Amino acid sequence: MPSVYSFQVSPTLPSRLEALNTLSLNLRWSWDHPARDVFESVDADLWESTNHNPRLVLGRVSQRRLAELATDEAFLAELDRAAAGLAEYMAGGGSFRRAHPEVDGFVFAYFSAEFGITECIPNYAGGLGILAGDHLKSASDLGLPLVGIGLLYQRGYFQQYLSADGWQQETYPVNDFATLPIVPIKDSQNAPLTISLEFPGREVRVRIWKAQVGRVPLYLLDTNVPQNSEDDRRITGSLYGGDRELRLQQEIVLGVGGMRALAALKIRPTVCHMNEGHSAFLGLERAHALMEELHLPFFEARQLSAAGNLFTTHTPVPAGFDLFDPHLMAKYFGPFTEKLGIPFDRLLSYGRQNPSDPNEYFNMAYLAARISSASNGVSRLHGVVTRKMVRSMWPGYPLNEIPVDSVTNGVHMRSWTSMEMTALLNRYLGPRWAEEANSGVWNRVDRIPDHELWRVHQIRRERLINYARQALEIQLKRRGASDAEIAVARSVLNPDALTIGFARRFATYKRATLLLRDIPRLKRILTNPQRPIQVLFAGKAHPHDNDGKELIRQIIHFVRDPEVRPSVVFLEDYDIRLARHLIQGVDVWLNTPRRPNEASGTSGMKLLPNGGLNLSVLDGWWAEGYDRDVGWAIGRGEDYENPDYQDAVESDALYNLLEKDLTPLFYERDQENIPRRWIAKMKASMKRLCPVFSTNRMAMEYATRFYIPAALRYTELAADGGAKLRTIVDWRRRIRTSGSQVKITRVQAATSGDIRVGDIMHVEASVFLGDIPPDDVRVQIVTGSVDPNGVIVNGSASNMNHAGSAGSEHRYEGQLECVESGSYGFSVRVIPYHPDVRVPFEHPWVVWAE
User: Fold this and answer.
1) Are 400 and 442 in the same domain?
2) Do residues 666 and 765 both lie within one domain?
């Protein structure tokens, strides 16, 4: 092979157009309509063919066209407005900074295996990545001191096309990083900045790139560098590709490499937020860095590292967590534990449900939880589901006290709102509607005249239909369809018909074919001449998920039925671009997961500012967003033992809703042909749900509930070389070694006789504490209603008072008020207490009365 000497060629811009370069390198254009319009004005065809990539547009547009634009006064005025908007945006501090000056000097580092910022950077697979991208955008809008850390994949996620039989096929186009809106980070010698990782028998080099997301930098790690072997260059080759060893390598690069990249960039994170468990190794690397910096032993450094870490899980089932064979872990982490000064088995114990089981696989979610100071699910229902999944980590604590919180997901409103709807909302709500997470601004939706809101929605539906026809024609031609089939594609769908969208990952629990369960009935619904319905499907199955691919094949075969061909379309290669068209144009978003398997879901949230309505099972976010005024619920939140019975019941409920609720309401028109009651539902949905299910609310909630408290605690514990840590570690050791002595020897209360509402019950307890001083524990009364098995349900705890002691035997007194009639019970327990330790999250120790 001859030597190849690589170089980069940048576009030559006339000086008057230099602002195009600045605009193209800040991904704010992905949610700023004026900036997007500028690049479309450069060359509309190029803008579409490059998948909305401004760097590629500038690289391919002719110099003649650039010269024309440099003298085009209308274009220059458009460019100057967009450039001034970006400059003003970057100069502003954001509302969060103004409201929270205490964050000055803090850095919040957000780690994720994927980021879905915009369609031309295919660094995402689905909802996890889209959520991460929207999180960064809202952090930028609010002014959070946040940086993103991820991987830069050479091939990203796959592109989808279908065979003649409707079977999903995958292609993996190679990304040319030089033509993406990202820049390489250089060192002081103007060479690519790299960090190194110790892998078995070798060193792996990792290059750092930056994508600027408004005010937030996103650093992306890439192993495709000349210093690495061919195998190591492929570590960041594709998203979620390869075997378990490759997945482990990727997660080492993300977690360990991410922390080293921040160090190389001179960025010292105060708080590290793990978006799923893929980056959990960061906690170990952070602890190691603190050992060297503050001269701490590992157990103190781990405690300090955890104080500044947060773990968010999006997984509703245990099978969704990454698991690694202990022998594989030994291959990569054996030497690392020597640097930490701990036995390898101790490292494995952090990733096991049962720390002493030598055969249990290493679970990244358990590691993430054990090296964090807080964990959360992504909806209220998901918080409950997660607590049930991980309750074994906190033995002895009731379900409602398992320390897993919840922060419901949201979407970045400006990114998903159509240009036409944005203009309408600007006119009636004011220019800051997307930044406001309060109902006051959104109540102004009532000011929008019905006919204006409906016309904007009709325009977007018409554009969706045109887009769908063009996309369908292209995919049919690629598939080798006949001229007759292509001719039909040019006239499918009705711009005036009730239009339903179903687009998501084709996992079996999402039940994409629930709508097809009774095909004769569905056909009658779709082809009703007075009240027709049409459905647009889209979505990908995982390359190895044949069950998911079979669902797609079934839909394709249904679509080819001549009776429904004009009314049902499957659009290939679901991505951000297609999602934007769908959510801005459909009337209703259909969501049919098997409850409670939807952690949150965000696709239905994207409809909200566009006036679309949701029709969904009460799972994920819809379980807390639904009421009758804002959409429709399939079922009433029941949980079923028999999935076939559940499918039968919920499909019937779905058909009933379509026949008796949705179609009559949509086609009920006044003399102006306006569906007033449907529009009332649109407005109610926008007013109530938009301020709640936004990433601005979500990011602010993370910041105030988790980031700031964790940052303050981390800085406090790190002060004076970690002096306070030693007292915490000593306390933990004392409680752990002496805890086996603790026993509640007596509980006394008047539980018999005539007890009435309002009575105060006095409780006394005797507790043997052994060597543990009373200040190191809390003795509590736990009371609540009891189920038929005598188990306390959703109990609440209150501290008892220390009333005296005789040696190691201590007497405690307390009381509980009988506030409601019914069957109630109480118990007494002892839990550890330290003012600087979160119990039970950081110390799951408890002794109950027996």
Assistant:
1) no
2) no
